[in-house]
Design goal:
Elements: H1 3-10, E1 15-20, E2 24-29, E3 38-42, E4 46-49, H2 60-65, E5 71-72, E6 79-80, E7 91-92, E8 113-114, H3 117-124, H4 130-140, H5 143-146, H6 149-167, H7 169-177, H8 188-200, H9 214-227, E9 228-232, E10 243-248, E11 256-257, E12 263-267, E13 279-283, E14 294-295, H10 304-315, H11 322-327, H12 334-346, H13 354-360, H14 372-378, E15 389-391, E16 402-405, E17 411-413, H15 414-425, H16 433-439
Parallel strand pairs: 11-14
Antiparallel strand pairs: 1-2, 3-13, 4-10, 5-6, 7-8, 9-10, 12-13, 15-16, 16-17
InterPro entries: ASHR2-like, SET_dom, SET_dom_sf
Protein name: SET domain-containing protein
Organism: Nyssa sinensis
């Protein structure tokens, strides 16, 4: 059975694989879909930490700007909180001598902490094998590797991938089948990392069936670049949000990009009791039979030039979606809009109206922009968020009026919002301004 046929049988029945001219393999609706329907729930074949192997303690300024001073379970990647009673169950890898304590926090360069003994047992039998533990320890002591934080994360992926070849050859074959071809000439990162791994921690002989080689290392890095999904750190309005872990999902990898997506992906890493690293894809509005299901590979508020640059550099293609065709005519305005957007990010107040959301996306009254409705309805207006809103799953075929943000997790009642907007248009002053902060579009979220 081919990999494409295998994907068709294992993906959710609401979507199917199809070849689309100019876009390659894609997932399309196999039946009419209702807003909020879950079209795919996918488990990762690889999850690995996005944190460097070893990093210096964050400065006070870094702590103010970033949320990277969290620690996570090395198996399920839930947040570890040393100041709570839950910290009593935190354990470390048996090979790691230090013991975390409730009061003292965790060692800053720890790469093998687990939220409880069960998570540790699961990891020791799979993702944190003795070879993985030894490899990460040796790599964390490699001076040349520690100079490059990005390559430290790439090294984590390669260790996880070569370990996958040992613990699950079928999953490793699936990984190799995903999009991403190694370049004719290996890039510097592949040359460097292959040399370091082969000298410090060569993979176990049991993975030799796939051949540990520079070409395979380069191919794996290419597949990671094109297919990895980021599992984000907890949202905070006053900090930049970083990635806690990367996962490669065999079915979700086939969703193509659109700058006006009709679906959004959700994860519940800290909230879900089981399968918490799964990603769930829901359509944000009704989708007809045969329509391609698309995600946005980055926040939808980015302007045309930034979107095109990221897609070229990270994914190797130029987007020609409906939105891009319209915005391609706006290039002369973008420098001015970039400055306006930065100012709005710093000064988002209670008087911000719907027009400000349009401006943040490059929309003005003079622009011919037929897609403005998307941003008014499906983009979260909470400060520093810019997430995509999707209805909760319908109940008994009845659509939900509750919209959920896939970034900050806030909920919004569409029916109440429409009532408020109608009242505002009629000149009615509401007595409860707090409700506006929660559900009013264009008004600062709580």
């Amino acid at each position: 059975m081919s990999e494409v046929e295998n994907i068709q049988t294992t993906a959710a029945p609401l979507v199917r694989m199809a070849e689309i001219e100019g876009r390659g393999r894609a997932l399309v609706a196999s039946q009419p879909l209702r807003a909020g329907q879950i079209v795919l729930r996918d488990s990762p074949i690889i999850v690995y930490s996005a944190l460097p192997l070893k990093q210096p303690p964050p400065s006070q300024q870094q702590q103010q700007l970033h949320s990277s001073n969290y620690y996570y379970c090395s198996n399920c990647f839930k947040i570890l909180q040393p100041w709570t009673t839950a910290a009593a169950s935190v354990v470390s890898c048996p090979a790691y001598s230090a013991s975390p304590g409730l009061g003292g926090g965790y060692p800053h360069d720890a790469h093998a902490l687990f939220c409880n003994p069960n998570c540790r047992s699961l990891a020791l039998a799979s993702s944190h094998s003795p070879w993985v533990c030894e490899a990460l320890t040796r790599l964390s002591d490699c001076p040349s590797l520690l100079l490059h934080q990005e390559r430290q994360v790439q090294a984590r992926f390669l260790i996880a991938a070569y370990n996958l070849a040992v613990v699950s050859a079928s999953d490793f074959r699936t990984l190799l089948s995903l999009q991403g071809d190694s370049p004719a000439q290996p890039e510097d990162a592949a040359l460097f990392l292959h040399s370091v791994i082969s000298s410090l921690c060569p993979p176990p002989q049991s993975s030799a069936v796939f051949g540990f080689s520079l070409g395979l290392t380069a191919s794996l890095l290419a597949k990671d670049k094109l297919n990895a999904f980021g599992l984000m750190e907890p949202f905070a309005q006053d900090r930049e949000r970083s990635v806690r872990a990367y996962g490669i999902y065999p079915n979700a990898s086939f969703f193509n990009h659109d700058c006006l997506p009709n679906a959004s992906r959700f994860d519940y890493v800290d909230a879900a009791a089981e399968r918490n690293t799964d990603i769930i894809v829901r359509v944000i509005h009704d989708v007809p039979l045969g329509r391609e299901i698309c995600l946005s590979y980055f926040p939808v508020n980015q302007n045309y030039s930034d979107r095109q640059r990221r897609l070229r550099e990270d994914y190797g293609f130029t987007c020609e979606c409906d939105r891009c065709k319209v915005e391609a005519n706006w290039s002369d305005l973008e420098e001015e809009e970039d400055g306006d957007e930065e100012a709005m990010d710093e000064d988002w107040d209670e008087n911000m109206a719907n027009k400000d959301i349009e401006d943040a996306c490059g929309v003005t009254e003079d622009n011919d922009f037929p897609h403005a409705y998307f941003f008014l309805r499906y983009m979260c207006n909470r400060k520093n968020c810019w997430g995509t809103l999707a209805p909760l799953p319908p109940s008994d075929s009845n659509p939900s009026c509750i919209m959920e943000c896939n970034v900050c997790g806030s909920l919004k009642n569409e029916e109440e919002e429409e009532a408020i907007e109608g009242s505002l248009e009629a000149g009615v002053v509401l007595e409860n301004p707090f409700s506006l902060s929660l559900i009013g579009l264009g008004i600062r979220g709580g």
